[in-house]
């Protein structure tokens, strides 16, 4: 016989069976365990035959205003588009892209300020200029440091993506590169250096605005730029063994300014992403700032070479 489970002795109460249905035939308890004490369904009006699973910690049950379970037909959760795409978490979102660009330009501005400080020190401080002219080996030490840091950041993904290691390598590279630029600028007249700085700022600003506004996609020209750069480097190696000529220097420096101006457009659009075919990852903010810094530095050097050759 069915054992006593909270019902009156002698059977079921008169007038019918308890709520929840009839007892199973054969006098055996239902499979899966006995019904809950009291025989009543849980409050809230859940359907017979089971209980709705309890909400997970940290989540609010879905429904109308959080009062019940289930969603109406056509219900779309907040942050999800009609096509099922999650909104606000895509890398192409303007907010994320703008934050990435601000970070890159903040790093770039710090690099340029350090470089400008070194240039001013070596150009306007006469004892420093004399000290550098007597210790040429420092220039070659800085050159080795620049190449080591550059190769490490370009080839080792962990170096340029792991913080604070990436900032340490970038800081060492920036100081060494700024030292080399200061030594180079100390050879020229201070007026020529100031003129080169002003022209570089104007050129870079114009090129950056063009890269942001133009509909042309320069990110597809990476292969062409690499080929032109290789030819340009070979031309520079050959020019070392040729007789020194003012015309040759002007031509070489002019090609250099034009080439790295295209590189500045290319690297700027890689950073912008969006409608362009290729873009750089948001984790590569160090690499993006490094590319822009090298483009600007090369433009400055070749403009300084043009001004120096024109004044000779």
TrEMBL record:
Coarse class of the primary localization is membrane
Q: Which CDD domains match?
A: LFG_like
Any transmembrane segments, and where?
104-125, 137-155, 167-187, 193-212, 224-241, 247-266, 286-310
Q: How does it sit in the membrane?
A: Multi-pass membrane protein
* Region entry Disordered, spans: 1-52
Keyword GTP-binding attributed: no
Source organism per entry reads: Diatraea saccharalis
Q: Which GO terms describe its cellular component?
A: membrane
Q: Which family does it belong to?
A: Belongs to the BI1 family.
* Alphabetized Pfam families for the sequence: Bax1-I
Protein name (Swiss-Prot/TrEMBL): Protein lifeguard 1
List localization entries: Membrane
Keywords tagged on the record: Membrane, Transmembrane, Transmembrane helix
Q: Where is the composition biased (Gly residues)?
A: 8-19
